[in-house]
Model the fold of this input.
Amino acid sequence: MFKLEEQELKDLGAIITTTEIKQQPELWAQAYEIYKANKENLNNFIENIGKKHGQFRVIFTGAGTSAYVGNSVIPYLKKKNDMKKCIIESIPTTDIVSNPYDYLKEDVPTLLVSFARSGNSPESIAALNLGRQIVDDFYHLAITCDPEGKLAQMTKNDEHNYLLLMPSKSNDQGFAMTGSFTCMMLSAILIFDNLDSDIEKAYIDAIIEMGRNVIDRKDEIHELINKDFNRVVYLGSGGLGGLTQEAQLKLLELTAGKIATGYDSAMGFRHGPKSFIDENTLIFVFVSNNEYTRKYDIDVLEEINGDKIAKLTCAILVENENNFSGKTFGFENKYNELPDVYLAFPYILFGQTISLFTSVKVNNKPDTPSPTGTVNRVVKGVIIHEYDK
Done:
């Protein structure tokens, strides 16, 4: 796909999505520069909340792919932050809007971190309005891709609000969220990771190298789906388990449901969901770099492979002493100290590429994958009901 001529990609209805997947390593570099330019002001914004209130909540929120940003980073960031100062949670806007009384507390200072590509989803706006309505000491950090979107327009920088705009090309024009997802995820990690600048730069350089490696190995990825299948499962542990939600959603969206998808944690999969596997199933496991967690990931890979039911069982991993005996899509050992939350970037780039190739394989159009129009780039049909506090 990445080698096809422009007209061929247009004929396949894939030129936008292909371009937007391929450009992501460059977007990560741009997002990093944006973060560095805002770092001091962002730190002051967040530190001032702590100084004023002591402990406060941080809620990562969004809908669909934007919700999965929080799910993918939350385990790592909880570990990296002092819970006596801030309690970090991931709650979708769709839950906040339907059940605000369960999630928003009037007397608990709260920083809502909104992830949004367009910033025009009704739930994004409603979640922000509910926070302002319900919470006495409410703060908002909008991480969004469209400066003209409603969320950006509602978030003017002051003591209670901060707007962080992503690189302009991250505002995907295709249906699927690709660069928007990874740029927002990278920004959230950098803001709350509190790394020394030299380590920060080393991690960014590593994910850019690995991302380019994924693009260069497009033929290898294509060969993985060059077989008959109608089911795909993604598995992972911790934050990589959160990432499996996004990987399976991309495939479901871009194939318009022609491929059935599933996801779970590596250990949780045994407890019922493993029933999903049949002879037409592909299994992809995002393997952890953590020595302890990796043992569980490898165990489930070996078990599924040993069952000899699935058509393909494949590990996506960084090579080290404990590797899967079956099919792998591997990265060099030099990346084996990279925290899992940073592995998420090349791993999801792999998943996006699988989704793109599979979409074309089932004769769908990746740029406009919903032939009925019932699923849209910006969600439609949502009625926001008035909430009485």
